Amino acid sequence: MEKSKISRREFLKKTGAVVGGAAVGTSLIGLTGCATTGVAAGFEGGVPSKWDFSTEVAIVGLGGAGAAAAIEAADNGAKVLIMEKQGPITINNTRMSGGVWHNPHKDGARSHLVNYIKATMSGENIPWKFEGEQPHVSDDMAEMFATGIMKLEDWLMDMDPDLDRSNMTPRAEASFPMFPSFKEAKYGETIGTRYKDYAKADLKLAPYDRPKQTKASGEALYHCLVEEGIKKKRGDKVQIWYSSPVKRIIRAANGEVQGVVCEKDGKIVNVRATKAVILCSGGFEYNLPMRRAFQEGAGVKGWVFYGTLDNTGDGIEMAMLIGCGLAKVAKSASRIEAGWPTGKWWTPDGKGLKIGTMSSSTSSRNSLVVDNYGVRYADEFIITDSRRPYRYQFYKEAVKYDMLAMDIPRTPSWAICDETRRLSGPFTGLVQQDYRNMVYGSDDNMDAINKGWIIKGDTLDELAEKIRADPENRKMMDTAKLKAQVARFNQYCAAGKDEEFGRSPTTMGPVDKPPFYAIKHYPGGPNTKGGIDADYQRRALDWTGKPIARLYTAGEISSVFKFVYQAGGNITECMVCGRKAGENAAKEKPWA
Ligand SMILES: Cc1cc2nc3c(=O)[nH]c(=O)nc-3n(C[C@H](O)[C@H](O)[C@H](O)COP(=O)(O)OP(=O)(O)OC[C@H]3O[C@@H](n4cnc5c(N)ncnc54)[C@H](O)[C@@H]3O)c2cc1C
Asked: What is the pTM of this model?
């Protein structure tokens, strides 16, 4: 969580906090039978003696989930305040995204749709597994989702008729043929969100500076929701405070959430929410302790994410402090990604968090991926292949633990490329550069090579030696194994058949033109999943499964999905769950 510039003592003084709810906190610990971290501490601040601002529904975070919640709360008659940590050019995951969402065919049978959705939420497709899939959550959640998802197309077009509806036609089949009702559900996905003149976009402009009619992907979605849906159409009911990080949830002694504490213009502001608070502040991609606690494998150094740098788990931390339970937290939609030692969370001592970028190098021609010993372990094309369902699960391969060596030999993995590949374009996707989070440099990759981010060797022997010398390789690289592996790979390319992993020959090309390059890859992806436990009404739940009064949540902070992820699910849930949270929050009877 972003550290406040204000000391803890000063903070409590400024909020006018009174110690009011410790007893409730303690009783919660008693109820759950376990001392959940911070439950009592969450009540330490209590209810402030004076409120600085009053609204009916207070929303934390202006991504897709927060925007959808605000629109729906306003349409249900509520006065809404959104508090956003970033400034007006808010670079969040919604904005950086591909803007892809799900739009099932209208003639699919509803019961089958529910079955399929339920399996995607369970993730493992194991109905008897009693893990985060309690019937009161997942059955009802799938029903709610099946209803909400069918309304999205019209809802978005209503927000802005200038969107390109022709691009919303359901296409393709669902991702997971092994899930129940796969065929009958007709659960296709849309290509994405875009405006009618998207093809005329001036690509030299930053994505967020392009005129409305040429916007596409997440930029189009964000514009539609925030600029059109909120500012133009509901500006009288919804107020947005930028540069206003929320620091704490206020829960009264009677157990109800009554507001939040926000830092606005360097001042502490106690915001009263007479109906409800909705948490939509995204995931924990850049929260070091949460990564350490939740992620599989080497959660801190061995993971990278390619979205916003401002998803620091704030909402999850605040919710835990007032007694919220967690669900599905160790999950993320992930594959393997290039990771770079730069960005605002990286530190010169090497203890910070790297930035991830989507990786074209892993599955393009003239490249292969090996573990720390120099051995391939999978068909690399899976990592980016949108025609197969497995790409967002690929990380499971990379976190594999070697019981005998007591190590994780595939973290990092190494993309091995040659000069032909270097000259064919950037080794990596450059979304992070488009959004000014990092500078990768020239498209011929030379800047990154000269910075030492990419290892170069005139021969494979030299490359292997340099990889061995890299501390993250832990001296595992075996030159003979790497050379033999590359030779085998090149033979498969010549023969048109990958004997080891069956990679499609059309995606392969030999790695034979020196110099050679090695790029580190880590488990990672767009976003984390899981966080606050919540039911189908999007009410936040405590550790006993009981709703916390007047607290709702939606989006990445409380994702309904696990690691089995059909592309587009995140944006879909932002809209479906955000709308549900907004509607229910607005319908609450005011407490004051
Ligand atoms: C490059 C990329 C491509 C993607 N493509 C797709 C796709 O095509 N389809 C899909 O379904 N998913 C996609 N995803 C994932 C998807 O974008 C996210 O899961 C989704 O947008 C999350 O929305 P959200 O509203 O929950 O969070 P966000 O959009 O990240 O918004 C959270 C907001 O909360 C703010 N915030 C954080 N802390 C505080 C605080 N303390 N106080 C106030 N505000 C706070 C943040 O600044 C941020 O603006 C992609 C992600 C990335 C990074």
From this structure: 0.92
In whole angstroms, give the CA distance from residue 215 to residue 450.
34
Quick check: CB of 273 below 6 Å from ligand 1? no
CA of residue 462 to ligand 1 center, whole Å: 41
Ligand 1 nearest atom to the CA of residue 99, by list position: 8
- Report the separation in Å between the CA atom of 61 and the middle of ligand 1, taken as the mean of its atom positions: 9
Q: Are 194 and 220 in contact (CB under 8 A)?
A: yes
What span, in angstroms and rounded, lies between the C-alpha atoms of 540 and 542? 7
Cα–Cα separations (whole angstroms), residue 212 to 205, 242, 572: 12, 21, 22
- Give the model confidence (pLDDT) of 511-555 as tens digits: 999 999 999 999 999 999 889 999 999 999 999 999 999 999 999
Q: What's the CA gap between 118 and 112, in Å, rounded?
A: 10
Instruction: Give me ligand 1 centre to Cα 531, in Å.
Output: 14
- Dmax (CA) for the chain in angstroms is 77
Domains of the chain are: 8-22+29-95+217-330+529-587 (3.50.50.60), 96-208 (no CATH), 332-526 (3.90.700.10)
pLDDT at 300: 93
